[in-house]
Amino acid sequence: MSEVTDIVDDMIAPVRVLVFDPRHEARAAAVVWQRELIRFGKDRTRMLASLVQPVLFLFVLGVGLGSLVGQAPGTVRFTTFLFPGVLAMSVLFTAAFSGISMVWDREFGFLREMLIAPVSTTAILTGKCFGGATVATAQSLVMLALAGVVGVPYAPIMMLQLVGLLFLASFICTAMGLVLAARIKQVQSAMPMVQLIITPMMFLSGALFPLSGLPGWLTVLTHINPMTYAVEPMRAIVFDNLAVDAATRARLDPGISWGGWTVPVAVQVAIVIGICLALLGIAVGRFARTE
User: Is residue 231 included in any domain, yes or no?
Assistant: First the structure.
């Protein structure tokens, strides 16, 4: 009997139980992040197509509506007012498509290969979000370089702040794309769903119009839209660097008010960070249940 027990003991292979290692998780997230950069760098058509829409909004829609609105001496040009909103819009679809590309990864089997790797789903999706946000932010630098054309000064501190806010806005859209990708199983359904979600967020963010003087129902919709809290800080930072009088500032950049209390820009940025973390957590939970 003891000989049989010894034989069975010899046949049992040792099992190594993996423990949580932050460095290992960070390396995994970095690999996913790097993959997003490589994929985007090889897609020249996607780069060009993603820049066409914001350029049209800024120089065609902006100039066209500017001629209709008119400009009084000493006031802000309409294209100058429009610049922060168009800058935010330049990252929306690129970031959202980076998140929704998980549908392609699922269809071609790459997603399952990632999920069975000895890393957490949180590390994979975090790398995906950072990759999508980095790609969208880097692409928006082309729009940022056009600031002087529309009368926005090239203030170094302002530019760095705008880049940081663009990254947060991109992170929100990428994480939202991941939340959608957890439920969408077919590539054909991905594009219409992104358009259905992102387009209303774009138009209800105050990117194309001031938040002052809106009807009550539109004010409510803009205040519950997460992108409003990403767009408004950009506009506030731009207007801080413009020479405008108080009346013009109040009309074009009134800020966000809750029951008469004007929400500080720092609080708005904190809300955006909280939304980023919440959407990432929802995406992780959904992928953990569906895959």
Answer: yes
Average pLDDT over residues 1-10: 51
Q: How many CB atoms lie within 10 A of CB 3?
A: 7
| Side-chain half-sphere CA neighbours of 138 within 13 A | 11
Residue 172 in domain: yes
**Using one digit for the tens of pLDDT, what is the confidence trace for 238-277?**
999 988 888 888 888 888 988 888 899 999 999 999 999 9
Q: Which of 43, 33, 83, 90 is nearest to 61 (CA)?
A: 83
The answer to whether residue 150 is domain-embedded is: yes
**Which residues make Cβ contacts (< 8 Å) with residue 41, sequence separation at least 6?**
none
Q: How many domains does the chain have?
A: 1
Other Cβ atoms within 10 Å of 138 Cβ, number: 19
pTM: 0.85
Quote the tokens at residue 199.
Answer: 């387009």
62 within some domain: no
More confident: 84 or 13:
84
Q: What does the H/E/C string look like for the chain?
A: CHHHHHHHHHHCCCCCCCCCCHHHHHHHHHHHHHHHHHHHHCCHHHHHHHHHHHHHHHHHHHHHHHHHHCCCCCCCCHHHHHHHHHHHHHHHHHHHHHHHCHHHHHHCCHHHHHHCCCCCHHHHHHHHHHHHHHHHHHHHHHHHCCHHHHCCCCCHHHHHHHHHHHHHHHHHHHHHHHHHHCCCCCHHHHHHHHHHHHHHHHHCCCCCCCCCCCCHHHHHHHHHCCCHHHHHHHHHHHHHCCCCCHHHHHHHCCCCEECCEECCHHHHHHHHHHHHHHHHHHHHHHHHHHC
Write out the residue range of the structural domain in which residue 161 sits. 25-57+75-290
- State the pLDDT confidence band at 80, using cuts at 50, 70 and 90: confident
Phi, psi angles (nearest 5°) of residue 258: -115, 105
